[in-house]
Amino acid sequence: xxxxxxxxxLGLLKIGLPILQAxxxxxxxxxxAAEVSNAGGLGAIGVGAAGVEGARQMIREVxxxxxxPLNVNVFAHRPALADAEREAAWIERxxxxxxxxxxxxxxxxxxxxxxxxxxDAMLAMLLEERPAVVSLHFGLADPARLRALREAGTVLLAxxxxxxxxxxxxxAGVHAIVAQGYEAGGHRGVFxxxxxxxxxxxxxxxxxxxxxxxxxxxxxxxxxDGRGITAALGLGAAAGQLxxxxxxxxxxxxxxxxxxxxxxxxxxxxxxxxxISGRPARSLANRFTAxxxxxxxxxxxxxxxxxxxxxxxxxxxxxAGEFGYGAQWAGQGAPLARRMSAGMLTRALASEMR
Length: 354
Hints:
By secondary structure, the chain is an alpha/beta fold. The chain folds into 2 domains: about 5-80 and about 115-245 and about 340-354, TIM Barrel; about 80-110 and about 270-330, no CATH class. The chain has 13 helices and 11 strands. An 8-stranded parallel sheet has the order 1-9-8-6-5-4-3-2. The longest helix is centred in the N-terminal third of the chain and has 17 residues, at about 85-100. The protein is globular and about 55 Å long.
């Protein structure tokens, strides 16, 4: 069931099971994180879209429900480069969809999320609240920010999609690496969304990192049950991180349309698309992914500016009872999803591993 890396990681994170719940912004809730931590895994919340006070409230809500460790995930992307001409053209491209739903698109698009790389207020809040773990997605923050968190006693995790990215993270002082395979749901953690991507799968990436690095590796992507976690441990991973498996749990913030789609034919056809948010992300096949087919990436505004329009379209569509324009993130293991509470799922995973 375990290896030396697992033992080291469990001690580092102060958890009893090599099971990490992915910090899915907009889907993972404080209740979900608390359930997972109470069951012996590492619960997580994604605060990249929450703002400082929203993030603080989420952390405190988890603590009210659990005394276990918590992983707080931040987005460390490069701030967006606005392009008014491209953004205006993107609005016009989707105008007809808004009209079909009885509305109009926003007049302009905004950078709706502040990157942790430039968010002093978020750093100050994390240093005050001192969550056990802070994880970074989309890249790394500057050395001073990472050093401040380490000196506060926080364990640092970072997502990597290649050996080169993982090495950069280790050199920056990250304690463990989340090896995100191409089959993973949600946003690719690539540091440069416009650079080359070897699209390494979870098996190959996990093994490459385990052989070449001296820090614990956490496998992520396509893992949906205990057998998947056990397989990852056999490759040298210290633990498995699961996201899609937790989307349909009782505590998830996924809406009714998202949940229904996860248990439909759409789960058999996940698609990597940049059109929803401006960065590559794997979604269930839905109306937005169909709309995005054939669109050149150069026509899509930068992340998270493109996301501003997608969220507006989804909000309008939901009012009409149409959920197919939502960001229904899911990995290639989606057909293996199960309905139960997050705590029950965590315990089931542990049982399946045994």
